[in-house]
Structure formats: C-alpha cells, structure tokens
Amino acid sequence: MKTKYLTKTKELEGLPKASDFKIVEEDIDENLTDGEILTEAVCISVDPFIRLHPISPGIPVIGFQVGKVLASKNEKYQKGNLVMHLGGWKTICKVADELCWYRVDNVISSKDITKGVGVVGMPGIAAYFGFLDLCQPKEGETVMVNGCAGAVGSFVGQIAKIKGCQVVGCCGSDEKVAFAKSLGFDEVFNYKTEKSWPEAIKRCAPNGIDCFFDNVGGQLASDIINQMNTRGRIACCGFISTYNSKTPMQALCDTVQPAMVSKQLRMEGFEINEDRFKPRYPEGVKQMSQWFKEGKIKVRETVTEGFENTPKAFIGMLSGDNIGKAVVRVN
C-alpha cells in the first residue's frame, strides 16, 4: 500500500511559502503491532502550533486528522470507524494508541465530520479547558479574547457567553468583526484599523477586564493586560503575532509587570497535551459536542479541498485568511 505525506523542503523562515513543502510517496508497512490502527485521511487540520514544532525536512509534518480505520489491532477501534488522531499530514497512517484521541463517529454525524478537528477536536478542547480551568470565569465578569475570529478564540467567546460573561474581542478585518458579533460577542474591534489599541480596549471594556484569553501575544496583549481589573486571570494559549517573525522577540516584562504586581494578576500558559488535561479529554469532547448540537456553539470553517493543497491552507491560516477553523478535506 502506498501513502503520501507532506514534508518541509528546508527550515522555515518567516511566513512559509508553497515551495517550502513537497509531497513524498512511499510504501507503508501494513503489519500492525498491538494497539495500532491503519487509517485513511478524511480531513486534516492546519493549526498555528505546527509553525513552531521542530520538524526536520524529510519528516512528515505533524498535525491532527480524522482518519477512517482500514485495519486495527486496537480493541477500541474497528474497521470503518472514524478516529481523530495525531497522524500528521499523511494520506495513510499507522497510528499508535497514544496518538488517538477518540472515535469521531460516536460524537458527531457524518455530515459534520470536519468538526472532528475543530469544535470537538484540539481547538475546541483547548478552548474548553484553557478558558474554564485557567480563567475560572464568574457570571457577570468581562472576558477579553484576541484572535476572536479564529478557531480557538471563537469557541472561547461562546463558552464565555454560556457562562454569563460580558465578552469583548478583537480580530483583523471588518468581516471577522461581523462574524464574532454574530456569535454573540458583545463588543469587537478591528485591531488593524484602530489608531490606538488602548483606546479601543477602553471603549469596548469601560469597566476593565477580568479574564483574558491570549492567542496573539505582543504589544496588543500588553495593552490588554494593562487594562485588567484586580485579581484578573490570563490564559496564554499562543503568540501567533511572532510565529513568522524573522527578528528576535521583544521582552515586554517592563510594560506588563507593573500591572501584574499592582493588580495581583495571575498569568498561566498551557498546552492541551499536558497530563492534567489528557484524562479529562472525554469530558471536554462530551460538553463541546453537546453545546454544538444544542446550537449554543456555532461553527464556521474555511475548508480547502485536496491533500496537495494542505500547505496552501496552512499558509492562508498563518496569514489570517481563514475565518473560524481552517481544515483540509481529503476524502
């Protein structure tokens, strides 16, 4: 059996280009060891964390996908099942049990299969645990989300509304602003057209910010932190503003430390593959799936067709072209 995978042609510099990737075809060993499954890709996720992952040229690019089981030596998954797993940018994958998250067809319908790498995939689970565990929102509090029209940010905002919060967001186009407001965000501003970020934040959150879910980092995050209320909570999920930068990151301690100390703020970073979250994945999948089915969480996707266009989708996501979750449909 043949498989195709995407790999880097060289180490990435700045915003990736299509020429930075190539497709490699090779034979795949169909012999499975205990716990392994063999799957065929149905859809592939393109996510910001991939840009930072240390993948050497020649190695398949890491990433989540929903795959249809072709063969199994894992009692949890049978032939024909659909499984969300960390198999990378490959058409046919041999996947160990520890890289498998859950059976998608037990959670969502076949017509919603791309949601398996979105609202009930890594972005949805990151939004659920990252926001609720780290920010611990209380009803009536003001929540700020930057990158609020992306996959994780759009879910965080909707979870905050479910929890009875006032929700403020910022994003990079007027179309994205309209999208975020359609999800229930109370106030949203376009950071690319505002002359003063501090003034925009003050206008949208005149009573200050209690919880801040940070997907972006950089100066914008610093400006938000400086308008937080006493004992505010900050969840650091990403810093996409610097992912493609060719220059060293600037230290911003001197711009945020006065607020951190004087307002007794708590800031915590997280990665969703931590041991504290792994045993609770079923909880997150169940709740996000329920909210999605009840219409309490709405989903928008930017879907790219064809395995060979995965790099194009990835580059577009890093450039901010997507609204909601960026996903590639393979089969």
Give an overview of the whole structure.
With 331 residues, this protein is α/β, with parallel strands linked by helices. It contains 9 helices and 15 strands. α2 crosses α3 (151-162) and α2 crosses α8 (281-293). The longest helix has 14 residues, at 122-135. It starts with a strand and ends with a strand. The mean pLDDT is 95.
Q: What fraction of the residues are assigned to beta strands by DSSP? A: 25-35%
Q: What overall geometry do the principal axes of the alpha carbons give?
A: globular
Secondary structure: number of strands? 15
Number of contiguous helices: 9
Order of helices and strands: EEEHEEEEHEHEHEHEHEHEHEHE
Helix content: 25-40%
Question: Which consecutive residue ranges, at least 5 long each, have pLDDT under 50?
Answer: none
Using only C-alpha atoms, the radius of gyration works out to 20 Å
Write a brief caption for the model.
With 331 residues, this protein is an alpha/beta fold. The protein contains nine helices and 15 strands.
Please give the structural blueprint.
Layout (H helix, E strand, L loop, with lengths): L1 E7 L12 E7 L9 E9 L3 H4 L12 E8 L9 E4 L6 E4 L4 E4 L18 H14 L6 E5 L4 H12 L3 E6 L2 H9 L4 E4 L6 H8 L4 E6 L3 H8 L2 E9 L16 H10 L3 E4 L11 H13 L7 E5 L4 H9 L6 E5 L2
Parallel strand pairs: 8-9, 8-11, 9-10, 11-12, 12-13, 14-15
Antiparallel strand pairs: 1-2, 3-4, 3-6, 3-15, 4-5, 5-7
